[in-house]
C-alpha cells in the first residue's frame, strides 16, 4: 500500500500512469494533499478558464505543497503567485470570476482571509442577488482552516461558523480523500462562490480511495452529509478533522455496548438539515463536535435543528463539544487543553446516554 | 462663518489664495473651458482642450476634433443624464425613493467621454454613484428610475437599489457600495481580458475619497506587476463626502499616486478632453499595462441626498463651477456658438429628453414591486434545492433545484 502511495504521488499529474497503477489494486491510499492536488490538476486540464492564485502557489510549489507541480504543468498564467496582499488579490480573483474565469484563490490559512472578508462577502457572495441574477461569481476560496499545532492565537481560528452564516456562499469542509476530491471538483464546477475549508493537520494523512473516486469526473453533491458509520444509540455530528475523532470514539464506545451513528457534515452551507434531523430522529440523541469556539458555532446550529425539528424525538438534551472559549495559547499543555479530545466525546456520549 | 472655518485650514498655499474659497475651488476656477478656440470646417469642429498634466507619460495632443453628429449625441446624452439626476432628486424629496441616492450631476462628461472612446466589450466597474454609468452603458432612464423606486422594471429588478445597477451584456459590473472595493474587482476584470486575450480593457472608477484606500494600492501593484490592461480612473470631485481632498490626502495629485504607473490629469468637465484621454489610455493599456487617469470634475449635489453639500463648501464655489465649467453647457455652446446647429435643434433635443424622462417616471410609478417569491430567488446561480430559513421556525424555504 505504501509503495503504491509513493508511486501514485510521483505519478500524480501524469494522467496515463495513475490509472495503470490503480488497476493493480482494488482500493488504494491517497493523502489529502494529493487529493487536493489531483482534483485541481484534473479540473485545470478539463477547463481552460480554471486557474490558481495565491501566495507561494507557483514557484514555491505551495506553502503546504498542495499545488506542487501545477506551475510546471500549466505555466504562470494559470498558476499565479501573488504578493502578500489578500484584500487586493481576493478582489482581483472575484473580478476575474465576474468576467467569466474560474479562479481558485488559495489563502495560506483562512486566518488571512479576514483581510479579504469584504471581497468574499460583499463582492462575491451578494452580487448574484443584488444583480437579480445578472452577475455570477464562480470562484473557490480554499486553504487551511482551524487549529494547527503550536501556531498560537492569530493562526489557529476556525472560520466555519462565520462563513456558513452568509447566504450566497457555499461552504464545504472535507474530511477524507474521497470528500476532498469529490467536493473540491464539485466546488470548481459550481457557478457560485465556494469557501473550501481544509485542515493542515490532515494534509499528510492517507485515506483509502477506490476506482470511482479516482475518476477524473468524480464529484460529490454539495449539501449532502454522509453517514460514515451507522448506529442506533446516539448521533455524533462533525466536519473535517473531528469526523476522525468521532469515528475513533465510536469504535471505543462500541466496546462498551453503545452504538454511535457518525455523520460527516461535508457541507456547512447548505447544511443538510434533513439528513441531520433524520439521524437525530433515529437515534434520539445528538452530540455535536467541532474545534471552533462555542458561541454561535456550528454546534449552536446543530442544537437548534435538534430542538426545533426533532424535539419530540429527543431522549436527552443535545450536547456540544467545542474548542474552549479562549484565544489559542502557545504552550503545548495549554493548547491541548483548548481543543476537544476523544475523551471529551466519550464523556459527552455517556452524559446523553444517562450513564 | 465659512471664512472663519477656512482660516483654520493648514497650508501657506491655501492662505495665499485668500477669500472664502477652498483651494480646490480656486484651482478649478482658473481652468475655465477654452470654448473660444474652436474652428469649424464643414461639419467638423476642431478645438483645443485644457492641457493634460502627466506623470511618467507623454500627453496626448490637446487639439481635438468632433463632428456635428458626435457633438449632438454627446449633448443628448449629457442632457439626458443631467435631467435624470435632477428628477431623481425630486423623486427622493417626494419620498418615492428610499435609502441612499448618490447623484452624478456635474460629472456627466466623464462617463460620456469614456463611452465615446471605448467599446461595450471593454469592462467598467464604478462606485455607488452609478446611475449615469448604467445609462451610458446602454441602459435606459426607466431602468434607473425603476430601480430607485424598487420596481421590477428596475435595472436589478428592484433588488439592488441605487448603488447596485448592472448591465452584464455591456460588461458593466456595477454599482458597488463599499468604497474602494471596486478597484481590485476592476483589476480582476482586466486580468480576465488579458487571460482570454480579448484585446479589451477594464476601467476601474473610484473617487478622491476612495483614493487613499490600501486595496487600491494593492491593485496598482498587481496590475503593474502583471501588465494588466486596466485603466484606473479617479473621478476627483474634490470632496470625499464632507472631507475636502486636501484634508484626506497627503498628496491629492491622484494621477501620480500610481507611482511607478503612468498617470494623467484630465479636465473632467470637458467631454472632448475626456474622450481624448480615454482613447489614449486604452491604446496605452492594451499595449503596455495599467495607467491612472484623474478626472478633475465636480458634483453639484452633496455626497448623497442626505447631504446638503454646503457645510463644507461654499455656494459661490458651486455656482461658479456651474457658470464657467458646466459640461452640458459647454457642448451646447460648442454647437450653437460655432453654427453647427440651429437653436431649434437643441430645443428639440431638450424637449424630447424631458418627455423621455417624464415617461420613465410615470412608467416607474405604475410598475409593480417585486413578487414576494423574489425574496428567495437569485441567492445562488445553482440553488441545489437547498433549504434556507425564514423569519421563524415555521418557515423553511426550499430553493429551486
Tell me about this structure.
The complex is a heterodimer of chains A (355) and B (401). Chain A has 355 residues and is an alpha/beta fold. Chain A has helices spanning 2-11, 17-22, 32-46, 70-74, 86-98, 117-125, 127-130, 160-164, 177-189, 211-214, 241-254, 273-283, 298-310, 332-338, 342-352; strands at 27-31, 50-54, 79-81, 102-109, 140-144, 170-172, 194-198, 206-210, 226-229, 234-238, 260-264, 267-269, 286-289, 319-321. Helix content of chain A is 39%, strand content 18%. In chain A, helix 11 crosses helix 15 (342-352) and helix 12 (273-283) packs across helix 13 (298-310). Mean pLDDT of chain A is 94; it is low at 11-20. With 401 residues, chain B is an alpha/beta fold. Chain B contains 14 helices and 13 strands. In chain B, helix 4 (68-93) packs parallel to helix 14, helix 5 (108-117) packs across helix 11 (271-287) and helix 7 runs parallel beside helix 14 (343-366).
Largest sheet of chain B: 6 strands, mixed
Query: What's the gyration radius of chain A in Å?
Result: 20 Å
> What kind of oligomer do you see?
heterodimer
Which regions of chain A have little confidence, pLDDT < 50, spanning 5+ residues?
11-20
Supply the number of helical segments of chain A: 15
- Tell me what portion of residues of chain B adopts beta-strand conformation: 5-15%
CA distance, first residue to last residue of chain B? 63 Å
Q: Please identify the structural class of chain B as seen in this structure.
A: alpha/beta
Helix/strand order of chain A, N-terminal first: HHEHEHEHEHHEHEHEEHEEHEEHEHEHH
- The poorly predicted ranges of chain B are 1-31
Amino acid at each position: 500500500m505504501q509503495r503504491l502511495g509513493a508511486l501514485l504521488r510521483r505519478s500524480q499529474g501524469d494522467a496515463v500512469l495513475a490509472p495503470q497503477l490503480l488497476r493493480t489494486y482494488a482500493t488504494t491510499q491517497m493523502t489529502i494533499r494529493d487529493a487536493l492536488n489531483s482534483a485541481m490538476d484534473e479540473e485545470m486540464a478539463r477547463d481552460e478558464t480554471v486557474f490558481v492564485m495565491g501566495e507561494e502557489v507557483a514557484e514555491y510549489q505551495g506553502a503546504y505543497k498542495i499545488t506542487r507541480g501545477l506551475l510546471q504543468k500549466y505555466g504562470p498564467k494559470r498558476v499565479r503567485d501573488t504578493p502578500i496582499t489578500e484584500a487586493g488579490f481576493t478582489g482581483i480573483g472575484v473580478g476575474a470570476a465576474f468576467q467569466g474565469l474560474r479562479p481558485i484563490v488559495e489563502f495560506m490559512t483562512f486566518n488571512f482571509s479576514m483581510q479579504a472578508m469584504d471581497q468574499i462577502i460583499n463582492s462575491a457572495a451578494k452580487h448574484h442577488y443584488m444583480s437579480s441574477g445578472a452577475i455570477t461569481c464562480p470562484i473557490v476560496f480554499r486553504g487551511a482552516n482551524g487549529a494547527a499545532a503550536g501556531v498560537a492565537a492569530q493562526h489557529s481560528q476556525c472560520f466555519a461558523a462565520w462563513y456558513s452564516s452568509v447566504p450566497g456562499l457555499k461552504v464545504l469542509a472535507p474530511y477524507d480523500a474521497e470528500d476532498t476530491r469529490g467536493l473540491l471538483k464539485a466546488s470548481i464546477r459550481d457557478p457560485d462562490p465556494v469557501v473550501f475549508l481544509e485542515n493542515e493537520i490532515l494534509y499528510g494523512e492517507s485515506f483509502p480511495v477506490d476506482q470511482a473516486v479516482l475518476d477524473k469526473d468524480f464529484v460529490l453533491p454539495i449539501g449532502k452529509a454522509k453517514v460514515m458509520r451507522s448506529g442506533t444509540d446516539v448521533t455524533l455530528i462533525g466536519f473535517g478533522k473531528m469526523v476522525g475523532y468521532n469515528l475513533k470514539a465510536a469504535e471505543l464506545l462500541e466496546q462498551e455496548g453503545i452504538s454511535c451513528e457518525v455523520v460527516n457534515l461535508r457541507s456547512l452551507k447548505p447544511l443538510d438539515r434533513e439528513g441531520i434531523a433524520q439521524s437525530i430522529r433515529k437515534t434520539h440523541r445528538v452530540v455535536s463536535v467541532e474545534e471552533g469556539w462555542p458561541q454561535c458555532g456550528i454546534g449552536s446550529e446543530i442544537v437548534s435543528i435538534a430542538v426545533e425539528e426533532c424535539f419530540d424525538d429527543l431522549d436527552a438534551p443535545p450536547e456540544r463539544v467545542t474548542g474552549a472559549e479562549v484565544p489559542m495559547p502557545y504552550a503545548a499543555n495549554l493548547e491541548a487543553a483548548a481543543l476537544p479530545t476523544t475523551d471529551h466525546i466519550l464523556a459527552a456520549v455517556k452524559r446523553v446516554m444517562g450513564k | 462663518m465659512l471664512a472663519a472655518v477656512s482660516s483654520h485650514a493648514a497650508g501657506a498655499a491655501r492662505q495665499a489664495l485668500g477669500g472664502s474659497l477652498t483651494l480646490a475651488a480656486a484651482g478649478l476656477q482658473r481652468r475655465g473651458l477654452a470654448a473660444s478656440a474652436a474652428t469649424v470646417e464643414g461639419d467638423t469642429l476642431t478645438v483645443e482642450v485644457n492641457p493634460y498634466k502627466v506623470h511618467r507619460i507623454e500627453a496626448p495632443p490637446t487639439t481635438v476634433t468632433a463632428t456635428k453628429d458626435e457633438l449632438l449625441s454627446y449633448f443628448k446624452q449629457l442632457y439626458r443624464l443631467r435631467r435624470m439626476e435632477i428628477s431623481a432628486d425630486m423623486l427622493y424629496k417626494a419620498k418615492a425613493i428610499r435609502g441612499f441616492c448618490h447623484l452624478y450631476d456635474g460629472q456627466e462628461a466623464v462617463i460620456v467621454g469614456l463611452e465615446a472612446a471605448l467599446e461595450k466589450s471593454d469592462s467598467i466597474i464604478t462606485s455607488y454613484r452609478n446611475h449615469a454609468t448604467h445609462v451610458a452603458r446602454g441602459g435606459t432612464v426607466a431602468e434607473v428610475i425603476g430601480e430607485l423606486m424598487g420596481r421590477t422594471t428596475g435595472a436589478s429588478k428592484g433588488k439592488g437599489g441605487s448603488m447596485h445597477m448592472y448591465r452584464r451584456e455591456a460588461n458593466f459590473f456595477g454599482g458597488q457600495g463599499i468604497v474602494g472595493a471596486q478597484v481590485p474587482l476592476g483589476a480582476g476584470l482586466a486580468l480576465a481580458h488579458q487571460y482570454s486575450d480579448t484585446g479589451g480593457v477594464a476601467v476601474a472608477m473610484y473617487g478622491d475619497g476612495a483614493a487613499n484606500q490600501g486595496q487600491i494600492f494593492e491593485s496598482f501593484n498587481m496590475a503593474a506587476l502583471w501588465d494588466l490592461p486596466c485603466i484606473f480612473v479617479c473621478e476627483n470631485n474634490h470632496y470625499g463626502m464632507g472631507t475636502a481632498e486636501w484634508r484626506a490626502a497627503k498628496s491629492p495629485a491622484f494621477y501620480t499616486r500610481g507611482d511607478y504607473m503612468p498617470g494623467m490629469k484630465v479636465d473632467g468637465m470637458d467631454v472632448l478632453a475626456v474622450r481624448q484621454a480615454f482613447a489614449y489610455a486604452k491604446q496605452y493599456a492594451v499595449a503596455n499595462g495599467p495607467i491612472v487617469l484623474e478626472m478633475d470634475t465636480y458634483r453639484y449635489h452633496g455626497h448623497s441626498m442626505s447631504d446638503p453639500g454646503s457645510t463644507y463648501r461654499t455656494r459661490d464655489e458651486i455656482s461658479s463651477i456651474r457658470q464657467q465649467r458646466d459640461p452640458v453647457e459647454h457642448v451646447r455652446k460648442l454647437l450653437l456658438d460655432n453654427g453647427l446647429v440651429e437653436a431649434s435643434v437643441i430645443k428639440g433635443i431638450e424637449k424630447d429628453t424631458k418627455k423621455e424622462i417624464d415617461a420613465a417616471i410615470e412608467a416607474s410609478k405604475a410598475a409593480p414591486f417585486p413578487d414576494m417569491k423574489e425574496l428567495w430567488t437569485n441567492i445562488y446561480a445553482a440553488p441545489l434545492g437547498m433549504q434556507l430559513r425564514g423569519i421563524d421556525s415555521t418557515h423553511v424555504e426550499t430553493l429551486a433545484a
